[in-house]
Amino acid sequence: MPRLIVENLYKEYPTRDEPLVVLRDVNLRLDGGDSLAILGPSGSGKSTLLHILGTLDQPSSGTVRLDNNDPSTMDEPKLAQFRNKKIGFVFQQHYLLPQLTALENILVPALASGSVTDDVDAHARSLVDRVGLTDRIHHRPAEMSGGEQQRVAVARALVNRPSLILADEPTGNLDRGNALGIAQLLTEIQAESQASAVLVVVTHSEEIAGHFAGQRVLSGGTLMNRANAVTDHETA
């Protein structure tokens, strides 16, 4: 069974007139080890879809299942625990805590689920090495560049060995060199992961999307294969 299954997903918001439909009949199946880039202009619903996949928002209808679990059936404490253990987030803004070092920021998700064991600490330190920040391990965010801070955010997303890694425009605030480095880093670390995580990245960059095995386009609230999206655009 695929690790991530999305079926007949709709999301709409009430307005004074007709409901505003942001997502319509989105379907997706991804196995462990799959990577997918979702392209689309600003306002196309990419972030909304990612938030629903990450259990930060609820769909109007349809289902999302991760590792055969339906998060919509969970109460808030159980959902928070599920999200922390199963899902790793990388956002455009890194959201590092300024008073913590690189290593301490990486360990925050592990701290949220209990005490940090020797195994978790060793894993976090290995991630510091893997993202190329060995000499920044005890530095605070203000002492690091934007690219270095985003590398800390990538490591933080991976510290709990999640089943699903979600990245929402993770390179949007970086220069081209750092942006491509982050995209390559995400795919390399996922490929090395023993947990065979699913990786879904939202981006507006064709160049960044090219680093990922699968590519889809969100247009008019519908998730389409790139070939279909191009055809529809040309027909219009």
Q: How would you explain this protein's 3D organization?
A:
It is a single chain. By secondary structure, the chain is α/β, with parallel strands linked by helices. The chain has a single domain (4-235), classed as Rossmann fold (3-Layer(aba) Sandwich), CATH 3.40.50. It contains eight helices and nine strands. It has helices spanning 46-53, 76-86, 102-112, 118-130, 146-158, 176-192, 206-209, 226-235, and strands at 4-13, 20-30, 35-39, 61-66, 87-91, 164-168, 198-202, 214-219, 222-225. Strands 5-6-7-3-8-9 form a six-stranded mixed sheet, sandwiched between helices. Strands 2-1-4 form a three-stranded antiparallel sheet, with helices on one face. Helix 3 packs across helix 4 and helix 4 runs antiparallel to helix 5 (146-158). It is globular and about 55 Å long. The model is unreliable at 230-236 (pLDDT under 50).
SS-derived structural category = alpha/beta
**The CATH H-level homologous superfamily:** P-loop containing nucleotide triphosphate hydrolases
Q: What's the total count of β strands? A: 9
What's the helix count? 8
Strand order of the largest sheet: 5-6-7-3-8-9
Strand content: 15-25%
* Total of domains: 1
Indicate the CATH topology.
Rossmann fold
What's the overall geometry? globular
The largest pleated sheet is described as: 6 strands, mixed
Mean pLDDT, to the nearest integer, reads: 90
User: What string, H for helix and E for strand, traces the elements in order?
Assistant: EEEHEHEHHHEHEHEEH
CATH architecture: 3-Layer(aba) Sandwich
Low-confidence stretches: 230-236
Percent helix, as a range, is 25-40%
> What oligomeric state do the depicted chains represent?
single chain
Distance between the termini: 37 Å
Q: What is the CATH level 1 assignment?
A: Alpha Beta
Radius of gyration: 18 Å
